[in-house]
Amino acid sequence: MASTNNQLEATELFEGQSLLYMHMFGFLKSMALKWAIQLNIPDIIYNHGKPITLSDLVSTLQVPISKQSLVERLMRFLAHNGIFVIHEKGENDDDDDQAYALTPASKLLSKSCCKDHCLTPMVLMSTDPILMGKFHQLGDWICGEIPTLYEAALGSTVWEFLEGKPEYLSLFNQAMASDSQMVNLALKNCSKVFEGIDSIVDVGGGTGTTARIICEAFPKLKCVVYDLPQVVANLSSACDNLSYVGGDMFKSIPQADAIMLKWILHDWTDEICIKILKTCKESVSSNGKKGKVIIMDIIINEEDDEKDMTETKLCLDLIMMGINGKERTGKEWKHLFVEAGFKDYKIFPLFENRSLIEAYP
Ligand SMILES: C[S@@+](CC[C@H](N)C(=O)[O-])C[C@H]1O[C@@H](n2cnc3c(N)ncnc32)[C@H](O)[C@@H]1O
Ligand SMILES: C/C=C/c1ccc(O)c(OC)c1
């Protein structure tokens, strides 16, 4: 609402300016994170065994002395944003009065600390210049005829792009695996979901991280990872109850008591999701069995989620926009299940931004 009071109008404009500055510089949060990873700072601090002073950090990094203050300023920025924390000793007034320590966020970027669930590959993929660069063409793409941003900017769909570039395919698979490791920590909250079933197919299961976690937790459960041939080629199973099958989920899906879809349906349009869900329903209903489909995905819930959580989910929605996928509200998920002919479904919290949905044919 426009204000009639000049003073208030100026205040509003200043607030508007402030918001714009915050947003236009938002990319620097990604860039500073990438800088910390490229210089291996999370591992350096972890291996140091205690908070590290600026001079120790600079000498480990072998940064020229003339650039010492740049390290200090980047660390100040990252600490301001919760990626590191600055411990003040307050004894003397020199540079070494302060020391940098890890926070939960930067622990997740240290391979030495969080070997199993290090999120570094996800950060490197998200900040890759080519993958990030396509967002410069959002405007042109939305006004043009080309169906996906990937095709508009990179000349092919995301899956074709990855198939043609082994180094990107490997980065993508590692990024997905790093996200999937979190399932390990959340499984105890939803172990009931996997009890009482003899076989499960993880459709689009990537290199098998989630399936491996489930196989280890439920040694009697027979688990198949089903993904594109180029993804599962040369993978061999570490446990007896896990196997890899290459194929195309649009042509067929192996039969099982349960189908798992983790971060699959958000990659696709409603129309395609309904097709996938119908095929899954056939697979788990064969042999007269009453199976189920287990979905691990995002549910947008602006009412109940914290603002920051919703923001992350809406960012992922824009990333999915680039491949014609989308993040869905509870109502939009329900629409998919109804249209695909499922009788009922149940939602469980999984971890942070992810829910587990059990859908029954
Ligand atoms: C976003 S990733 C999710 C991977 C894994 N479920 C996870 O959460 O870590 C989507 C997966 O779907 C696979 N995929 C894409 N098209 C497919 C198709 N037509 N048939 C089978 N898998 C497909 C991709 O190769 C990729 O591994
Ligand atoms: C940076 C995150 C990328 C990403 C996350 C989940 C997905 O399903 C995906 O599919 C193309 C990409």
Keywords:
47% helix; three-stranded antiparallel β-sheet; binds S-adenosylmethionine; seven-stranded mixed β-sheet; 361 residues; Rossmann fold; 3 domains; Arc Repressor Mutant, subunit A
Give a structural overview.
By secondary structure, this protein is an alpha/beta fold. It folds into 3 domains: 27-107, Arc Repressor Mutant, subunit A (Orthogonal Bundle); 120-172, no CATH class; 181-360, Rossmann fold. Helices cover 47% and strands 16% of the residues. It contains 18 helices and 12 strands. A 7-stranded mixed β-sheet has the order 6-5-4-7-8-12-11, sandwiched between helices. A 3-stranded antiparallel β-sheet has the order 1-3-2. A two-stranded parallel sheet has the order 9-10. α2 packs across α7 (120-126), α7 crosses α12 (166-180) and α11 crosses α12 (166-180). It is globular, with a radius of gyration of 23 Å. It starts with 5 loop residues before the first helix and ends with a strand. Residues 159, 176, 179-180, 204-206, 227-228, 231, 248-250, 262-264, 267 line the site of S-adenosylmethionine.
What percent of residues are in strands? 15-25%
Q: Kindly provide the name of the CATH class of the largest domain.
A: Alpha Beta
Q: Given the structure, what is the number of helices?
A: 18
Share of helical residues: 40-55%
Structural class: alpha/beta
Report the CATH superfamily of the largest domain.
Vaccinia Virus protein VP39
Number of strands: 12
Sheet with most strands: strand arrangement? 6-5-4-7-8-12-11
**How would you state the average pLDDT, rounded?**
94
Over all CA atoms, what is the radius of gyration? 23 Å
Whole-number count of domains: 3
